[in-house]
């Protein structure tokens, strides 16, 4: 894969959400979608990836940029343990495996989860989304 393919993918991804391709957004977009694969990252793991790629981006900027990507609908946020946020470049509804041992979040097969029934939403609100996180530990 050439560098220009990576950059082109990143630019198209940002353009699809009408986000201006600033240097930092482009850096992070290249790491997130440059290879055409979906991934699940935390601000910390993406920040480490920028350092590994010799990009100089602060953790705060990584965090704020992920928020902006999330607001623009480019990534989905999945919260585990109420505090840990993962950002997923795959934005359709799908279940996740959370690997307790090393804190990884990966996709679970979509056809593996079926809801017979959901609780009725309280009056005046509707269910906007159901997040499914299946926790895994060594058996
Ligand atoms: Zn996912």
Bound molecules: zinc ion
Q: Which structural class do the helices and strands define?
A: alpha+beta
> What oligomeric state do the depicted chains represent?
single chain
CATH class: Mainly Alpha
- Broad shape: globular
**Biggest sheet layout:** 3 strands, antiparallel
SSE arrangement, N to C: HHEHHEEEEE
Q: How is the CATH topology named?
A: Arc Repressor Mutant, subunit A
Helix content: 25-40%
- The CATH level-2 architecture is identified as Orthogonal Bundle
Biggest sheet strand order reads 1-3-2
Describe this structure in words.
This protein is of the alpha+beta class and 139 residues long. It has one domain: Orthogonal Bundle (Arc Repressor Mutant, subunit A). Helix content is 34%, strand content 17%. It is built from four helices and six strands; from the N terminus they run ααβααβββββ. A hairpin with a 4-residue loop joins strand 4 (96-99) and strand 5 (104-107). It is globular, with a radius of gyration of 17 Å. Bound molecules: zinc ion (ZN). Zinc ion binds next to loops. Pfam families: FUR (PF01475). It is found in: Cytoplasm.
Summarize this entry quickly.
This protein has one domain (3-136): Arc Repressor Mutant, subunit A. The chain is built from four helices and six strands. It has helices at residues 3-15, 23-33, 43-52, 59-71, and strands at 40-41, 76-80, 84-88, 96-99, 104-107, 133-136.
């Amino acid at each position: 894969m050439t560098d220009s393919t990576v950059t082109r993918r990143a630019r198209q991804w940002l353009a699809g959400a009408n986000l201006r391709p600033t240097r930092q957004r482009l850096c992070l977009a290249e790491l997130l979608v440059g290879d055409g694969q979906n991934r699940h990252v935390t601000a910390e793991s993406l920040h480490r990836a920028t350092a590994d790629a010799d990009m100089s981006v602060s953790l705060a900027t990584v965090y704020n940029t992920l928020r902006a990507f999330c607001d623009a609908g480019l990534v989905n946020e999945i919260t585990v343990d109420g505090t840990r946020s993962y950002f997923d470049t795959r934005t359709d509804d799908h279940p996740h495996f959370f690997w307790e041992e090393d804190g990884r979040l990966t996709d679970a097969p979509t056809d593996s989860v079926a809801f017979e029934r959901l609780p009725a939403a309280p009056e005046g609100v509707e269910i906007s989304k159901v997040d499914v996180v299946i926790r895994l530990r060594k058996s």
